[in-house]
Amino acid sequence: MTDHSVSLVANLITLFLALAIGTRMGYAVAARGTVHQIELMDRHFDGSRELFERQQVLQRETDLRMRSREELRSSYEVLGLWLHQMGQTLDEIHFGASSDEKQMRDKAEALVSRRPWEVVSPPAGAASAEFYWSADVLRKIRELQQPYAKFIMHTRLAMREPGLDLALSSSHVDDDAWEHWTELHRLIVGIKNQAREDLMSTSPAQQRA
Predict the structure, then answer these.
(1) How much is the pLDDT for 209?
(2) Which member of 40, 49, 71, 160 has the greatest number of CB atoms within 10 A?
(3) How far is CA 176 from CA 118, 122, 208, in A?
């Protein structure tokens, strides 16, 4: 083999070795680049997943608060309707007892014959709504009992007292029951104001006394 052949073979071997080393280094660099890209993708995916999960939690909390507020609002609508009906009952008793119209007096007599706690206690149909009423509202509702009992007592005495003509009986009703009738309406207004405060509050107290 001539010196030229030996030199050519040596050059070829060197070239092959360089190509092999370069190819391996290229693979290694490419592999490191792929691993880095995968790590970046993993971190991006984890961040997106955590953001999505946080958004889902916040959305559920928002939905829950909105549903709770709607249930609270509905429960206080039941309260408002009941208080309105109670106010009408008080007026029908008071003005009917002092009226000279037989129909109005007969209705007043029928109303005062009802058991007192049936008038000043929330009806059974409001039981589910009552769960949402605040402790202050429930306390104020209980405050209706004593003045209502006195109001009914004075009204009954005046309407059934023997020996009094209609005009005298009506005047007697006004003198003795007016104070308690006024107090009851004042208490009803107080309950409505408390309900309004509960609805305006972002975290209304809902624990019973």
Answers:
(1) 44
(2) 71
(3) 23, 27, 34
Tokens of 97: 């007892």
First to last CA, the chain: 112
Q: Are 55 and 74 a contacting pair, CB within 8 Å?
A: no
What are the pLDDT digits (tens) for 139-185? Answer: 999 999 999 999 998 888 877 754 444 444 445 555 667 888 999 99
Q: What is the pTM of this model?
A: 0.64
Euclidean distance between CA atoms 135 and 84, whole angstroms: 20
* Pair of tokens at residue 38: 């995968």
The residues, ordered by sequence, that sit 6+ positions from 149 with a Cβ below 8 Å of its Cβ are: 116
Rounded distance between C-alpha atoms, residue 198 and residue 129, angstroms = 14
Residue indicated by tokens 């058991």: 115
